[in-house]
Amino acid sequence: MRGLNSSLILLGLLCLALSVYAQVAGLAFSDKLQAKAESGDVDSQFQLGNCYFFGLGVPKKQIDGVAWYRKAAEQGHAEAQFNLGGCLYQGYGVEPNQVEAVRWWRKSAGQNFPPALISLGDSYLHGRGVEKDEKEAVRWFQKAADQEYPPALHRLGNCYLQGTGVDRDVVQAMRYYRRAADLKYQPSIDVLDKLEEGASG
């Protein structure tokens, strides 16, 4: 089951892109959006950050995207806080700083934004930006799982399957994987297929 660990890390790295892409459908730069952002409108600042970060109607310039994410994040925009944390974690448009990334994820998690909750969990699980603490990782995953957030359900399945931060419990692991699979979360569907294939083999 060591492959599950690499899947978990990969999912953590994809969180930023998945969250942002969920927000950019039909979004494109406009002078009106720029003006609203410059006037201090927090949602416009976040959207403008996406425009620059992904090159939506303007030349792609991650450093400007990060700057607008930061403006929105400082005004308390949960997703901007999360995206800023992701940029800091990966070094997209800014010098990488995992400690500062965790600080912004914690602010976003304080608003119960599920991707931030699991990013904090991943940080504790792997000891990146914080001291490694598997039980604390499980606590953050559980907060997101309580919102039926599929990646969090999947992570809890991994934890119970491997005995990471909790007592190993294959039955409980299967429950979490099934809840995520019922929400069409492909990684959990794949794990269930492998586990059931192994059981019947």
Characterise the protein shown here.
With 201 residues, this protein is an all-alpha fold. It contains 11 helices and no strands. Helix 1 runs antiparallel to helix 7 and helix 7 packs antiparallel against helix 8. The N terminus is likely disordered.
What's the number of helices? 11
- Terminal Cα separation, in Å? 16 Å
Oligomer: single chain
Helix content: over 70%
DSSP summary, beta strand count: 0
Mean pLDDT across residues: 88
Give the structural class: mainly alpha
Rg, nearest Å = 18 Å
- What is the element string, with H for helices and E for strands? HHHHHHHHHHH
Strand content: under 5%
Low-confidence stretches: 1-18
Main β sheet profile: none
Principal-axis shape equals elongated
Task: Provide a brief overview of the structure.
This protein has helices spanning 2-21, 31-38, 42-54, 62-74, 78-90, 98-109, 114-126, 134-145, 150-162, 170-182, 186-200. The protein is mainly alpha-helical and 201 residues long. It is elongated, with a radius of gyration of 18 Å.
